[in-house]
Write a structure and sequence with these properties.
The termini are close together. The protein is of the alpha+beta class. The radius of gyration is 16 Å and the shape is elongated. Strand 2 and strand 3 form a beta hairpin. The protein has two domains: 41 residues, YefM-like fold (3-Layer(aba) Sandwich); 32 residues.
Length: 84
């Protein structure tokens, strides 16, 4: 997963400028919120949430063995950029 500096906001910016952060989420699909310079939360646009919800709902219908097959097929975290 690539995280651009433009899609990162501080917790205090989120509190002070929520509307701007929502607009950023619409632009980037999601923004990452830091608290004390550590990842704290993610704000998704509704479009990104709906896109992910389809995947999540599908995963919830799978048996554990099928979920394990999907998980094993995913790239390891260190290799995600190369797979994208």
């Amino acid at each position: 997963m690539k995280i651009t500096a433009k899609s990162i906001v501080s917790n205090s910016d989120m509190i002070k400028n929520y509307k701007n952060c929502r607009n950023m989420a619409d632009t980037f699909g999601k923004i990452f919120i830091l608290k004390n310079n550590q990842p704290d939360a993610v704000l998704f646009s509704i479009a990104e949430y709906e896109r992910l919800s389809v995947f999540i709902e599908r995963m919830e219908t799978l048996k554990d063995t099928d979920i394990e097959k999907v998980v094993v097929s995913l790239p390891m975290e260190a290799n995600r950029d190369k797979e994208a």
